[in-house]
Design brief:
Layout: H1 3-14, H2 20-27, E1 33-34, E2 39-40, H3 44-48, E3 54-55, H4 61-73, E4 78-81, H5 85-94, E5 99-101, E6 106-109, E7 117-124, H6 130-142, E8 145-150, H7 159-163, H8 165-169, E9 173-178, H9 183-189, E10 196-200, H10 212-219, E11 226-228, H11 234-253
Parallel strand pairs: 3-4, 7-8, 7-9, 9-10, 10-11
Antiparallel strand pairs: 1-2, 4-6, 5-6
Helix pairs in contact: 1-2, 4-5, 6-11
Length: about 250
């Protein structure tokens, strides 16, 4: 319970509007719903502005349906990440209104139909990075952001990047997704004045080490203004970008 809510309850007790026991009952609320395999944080959106997200990998279809059922009953938006097609088929038998994107492997239900604001550019080095990019793009759109997709503009043919540079510069925050050596993040970081979020991917040959090489390359970038999320973490990049984008729009409105 937030501090101002606590004060309100205490004031109600002082004014004899409620009893101390009633106040104690309200203060003792856990703000989560417990299933035998999960504790669903039903107060997260009120607390942070973003509802709980279901990480689908490692959960059974039945478990995902159980969590989604609780969230849906409470009118919450539902975002499920890392859902393989076979599992999605089982889930949609119980929840046909959950949309599924097979590329991003994401399921969504957004009854609020949030207005999309600002601009997030999602840039990939290669076509092989699109799976991670679509996880980021759909997540960002789900959280109410305009998204511009700019795919396959890696440093091996850098003229492709320069052709899209003005479009990229119009965004308030840029997500750059790259495998191999991850050089695209440093290049873009040195060409723009927006925050850049780097996403290393597990795309590449032997010494690429399943994403470790681009991860370390991005962390060691000499371009300022770059932050880096974990390997293949399109969701994490989009979440961070959404927070930056919404803050930027709020400041502009002021």
């Amino acid at each position: 319970m937030k501090k101002n809510e606590l004060l309100i309850e205490l004031e109600h007790v002082a004014a004899h509007k409620i009893t101390p026991q009633q106040a104690a009952n309200k203060l003792s609320k856990t703000d989560f719903t417990e299933l035998n395999y999960a504790k669903i944080d039903t107060a997260r959106e009120k607390r942070t502005g973003y509802s709980e997200v279901i990480y689908g990998a490692g959960k059974t279809a039945a478990q995902i349906c159980g969590i989604a059922s609780v969230m849906k009953k409470q009118g919450q938006s539902i975002l499920v990440t890392r859902v393989i097609p076979e599992k999605a088929v089982k889930i949609q038998k119980e929840f046909p209104d959950l949309d599924y994107d097979a590329v991003a492997q994401i399921m969504t239900l957004n009854p609020k139909k949030s207005v999309h604001i600002g601009e997030i550019a999602i840039v990939t080095a290669g076509t092989s990075d699109i799976k991670v990019a679509e996880e980021a793009a759909i997540t960002a759109e789900f959280f109410g952001n305009h998204v511009t997709r700019i795919y396959d503009v890696g440093v091996a043919g850098i003229q492709r990047l320069f052709a899209k540079l003005e479009v990229i510069r119009q965004a308030k925050v840029i997500i750059v997704i790259a495998g191999m050596e991850g050089a695209l993040v440093s290049v873009i970081g040195g060409l723009v004045n927006q925050p850049v979020i780097g996403v290393p991917t597990s795309i590449g040959y032997g010494s690429h080490l399943n994403g470790l090489t681009p991860l370390l390359g991005m962390l060691n970038s000499c371009s300022a203004g770059i932050s880096v999320v974990n390997i293949d973490n399109g969701f994490g990049a989009a979440f961070n970008a959404s927070m930056i984008n919404h803050l930027a729009v709020k400041e502009k409105i002021k």
